[in-house]
Amino acid sequence: MKPILEAINLQTDSSLKVECYDNSSYCKSTGWHIHPEFELVFVKNGDGCLNIGSRKMNYSNGTLVFLGGNIPHADFGNKDHEDNLEVVIQFRKEFLVEKLKVFPELSGIKDLIQKSKQVMVFDSTIKDSLWNYFKQFDSLDNQGKLINLLTILDHLSRYGKYVCLFDSYPVNKYKKNEIDRLEEIFEYVNYNYSKNISVAQISSQLGYTSNSFCRFFKKMTNRRFIDFVNEYRIEKAVEAFNESNSLIAEVMYNSGFNDPSYFTKQFKKYQSVTPSTYLKSKYGLSSV
After folding, report:
1. Residue 69, number of CB atoms within 10 A of its CB
2. Burial class (CB in 10 A: 0-12, 13-18, 19+), 74
3. What CATH superfamily is the domain 175-283?
4. CA distance linking residue 226 with residue 67, whole number of Å
5. Cα angle 189, 249, 277; round to 5
6. How far is 6 from 149, CA to CA, in rounded Å?
């Protein structure tokens, strides 16, 4: 089965995306999927199965796994225990290429990130020793998250014992040119979501007709391009609401919507509540 490409929505002021899930906020399944970003996953406890590429590996009492970009995989977590915690950290290759390369002192971390292309599964000793770091993520700001991640990667590069699922991973068998085009589409939406996004313009930029572009996107992601853009914009709107009790109209325009009724409809579709209800539940009052 061909993996579905997943778009990772990074905040504009962050180099990484961190999601924390407990038993009641379990990570929504994306099924068999692939994305260009590197991914570090911590699962505190419980039993499960790592389904990555052509390999499967059962785990007990949680897991800590690090995999490079463009490697197909299924979800990792489980709901065995009420006190379980799953932390998913994702960052792009630019984190390595553009940022870490200016610090020669971080050579150990750079080597670790390169090894992630072989998919590293760490032993329980190092996983358990890093528990206090992983549980902090949900209470940290973006600067704190970056420092915390570097601390974890430093520990893993120095003391982590692991097994690699692959001697090397043949990424090119998954049509790297198609993955690159999807990444270009994701980047285009990331930089232009607040503006008018024209299918004709992005199709021309990638060398497609509008119809062939829409067929390509549906084939690779199993969804319509307009649905992807709308969900991405709603995620940006939620980010804005979470940062402050902003005016709904202001957030609507900044996230790329022009019609209040359509914005409300899309917000309710992806968040299950209206924007005013979301704000009221978060701040105790509503904005207009």
Report:
1. 20
2. middle
3. Homeodomain-like (1.10.10.60)
4. 30
5. 100
6. 22
Give the residue carrying structure tokens 């270009």: 184
State in words which class domain 4-164 has. Answer: mainly beta
Q: So where are the chain's domains?
A: 4-164, 175-283
Report pLDDT digits (tens) over 39-62.
Answer: 999 999 999 889 887 688 889 999
User: Does pTM top 0.85 for this prediction?
Assistant: no
d(CA 178, CA 169): 17
Nearest to 10 by CA among 99, 98, 94, 90: 90
Residues above pLDDT 90, as percent of the chain: 43
pLDDT category at 253 given cuts 50, 70, 90 is very high
Nearest to 106 by CA among 150, 66, 160: 150
HSE-up of residue 269 (Cα within 13 Å, Cβ side): 14
Cβ distance 164 to 149 under 8 Å?
A: no
Which H or E run includes 246? none
Task: Report the 10 Å Cβ neighbour count for 5.
Answer: 24
Whats the size of the chain, residue-wise? 288
Residue 266 burial class via C-beta count within 10 angstroms: exposed 0-12, middle 13-18, buried 19 and up: buried
- Most confident of the following: 16-25, 109-118, 220-229, 279-288: 109-118
- Report the helix count and the strand count for the chain, using DSSP H and E: 12, 10
The total of other beta-carbon atoms located within 10 Å of residue 55's CB is 13
Domain 4-164 and domain 175-283 have a common topology: no
Tokens representing 280 are: 């009221």
CB burial class (10 A; 0-12, 13-18, 19+) of residue 139?
Answer: exposed
Residue 3: which pLDDT band, with cuts at 50, 70 and 90?
low
